[in-house]
Amino acid sequence: MNIVCEHLTYVYDKGSPFAVKALDDVSLTIAEGEFFGIIGHTGSGKSTFVQHLNGLIRLPSSKKKRYKPEKGEILPTLKVGEYDLTSRKTDFYSLRKKVGMVFQYPEYQLFAETVKDDVAFGLKNFSKGISKEETERAVGDALTACGLDPKEVAEMSPFDLSGGQKRRVAIAGVIVTRPEILVLDEPAAGLDPLGKREVMALLHRLHGSWCKTIVIVSHDMDEIAENCTRAAVFSEGKVVMCLPPRQLFKRTDELLSLGLDIPLVAKICLALQRRGIEIDCDFTADDFVAKVLALRRDRR
Amino acid sequence: MKDVAFGQYYPVNSFVHRCDPRLKLFFLVAFIAAIFVANNFWALGACAAVLIAVVALSRVPLGKVLRAIRGVLILVIFSAVISVFFYSGETVYWKYGILCVTREGIFFSVFLIIRLFLLVICSSMLTYTTTPVALTDGIESIFHVHVLALIMSIALRFIPILMDETERIKNAQKARGADFESGNIFKRIKAIVPILIPLILSAFRRADELGDAMDARCYMGGKKRTKYKKLTFSWRDLVAFLTAAALVTGVALLRVYVGGM
Ligand SMILES: Nc1ncnc2c1ncn2[C@@H]1O[C@H](COP(=O)(O)OP(=O)(O)OP(=O)(O)O)[C@@H](O)[C@H]1O
Ligand SMILES: [Mg+2]
User: Fold this and answer.
1) ipTM for the complex shown
2) Orientation angle between helical segments B21-37 and B103-129, nearest 10 degrees
């Protein structure tokens, strides 16, 4: 399923003194199979954008019978696969099965007595009347895919797990329904370095096999450089750039002026550049090392 | 933060907003007293006129003000209907068993409706124009109970936070296919559990964190605390005070000299 979004604008608490324009004429296309990154300063509208993708925030035209656009309003397009999110006839419930969403700090949404029950929650909702054995199997698969041992954790209370484990249980609770697109809002935020690595490794394992497309919101540029096929930069509700990391992180000055960071590899490349050594890499550690070694070989 | 009109501050700068919270509390009490002392349409009209002036001065949009009524509309209609049918009077229009409709009964229920509306609008004006913090400051300075004011301001402070939190959890469970809108009442109650448990846990967590933060800043309750912002009366408060005093006196005089309807 491709995601096509054009001229999307969203205002929170429209018409009140609290009104905030969170998205301003956003146009983005995310192709099936991508590992897509979304970066941007705090409050730039990243979370608001991703919540549109499974209809948690709905466009006004999909809520009212006869929606009258305001004067001068450009009508947005928002399509996820065959689902047209601007239409009132769209089945948002089945859309949510296709587009899994992992929120910021997803461990705070755990509620069931056992890990098993919590992971099965989405499955029971989306696949009504699913048999007990099937549920058990699907839950086991999801936990294993998230790097947890079902035998060990399935019967435990989710509140007795470590932070990183909780996070992975929460992710398992979303992927258990096998969504085609998996959206994650800062999946590694607040974890220790090991937890972060595990979550990113887990996403890599899921990508392509379990979920075709992954969209991740992140503040960690190393994560973006290492994993993403493309990344969009949000600023004040607008998309200012949308490029593969290789080109994106060459535009250092722009990123820094938006209050964003650049990957460590990009910083090293800059430092080398100042000493007169140009290295053209895609800002992953592996590629960087390969290029440096090649350079050394050439100089010999 | 969408559906709850009561207790929602409306942030504009106006005469009413800048009045001292203590005076606004006093004004509210005086106004309520006036509404209940008023026993004829002249007196009630005077109350309504004062309230309309307050609303106009406050620059809170009329739609917002009327929204406050919506919440109590059913209650008001219910009590009005009851009093129409059960109020006994001399000019009887219709009678059936103990039920009767009289001229006095109709007057009485119209009176009741106006009274209740004035009451609700006036109280919601207080919360529209006064921040929760200012309100508790006012209460604290009147009653000199620090702990109570602290509890109140923390509770008020947490309402929007917990409401946002509820929204977030609700969205997260909706993303996992939870359905809160359909099904019979038992289904719906059961559907709340996945929201309620994380919400309660998060409330405890936040309370814990707040306690730690207060400890870390050496918070101690007690009388010796000083205020960062001292409340002071200004000319606005004098105007408001005189209005309230005039209203109560006027209504009382009308009661004595004009009498009931
Ligand atoms: N429920 C809401 N009600 C009102 N305003 C909101 C709400 N959620 C977000 N906003 C506002 O919309 C803007 C965009 O918020 P959003 O959460 O999309 O930002 P973000 O890019 O995800 O930020 P962060 O990196 O901090 O998660 C912000 O100014 C925020 O204050
Ligand atoms: Mg966010």
Assistant:
1) 0.88
2) 180
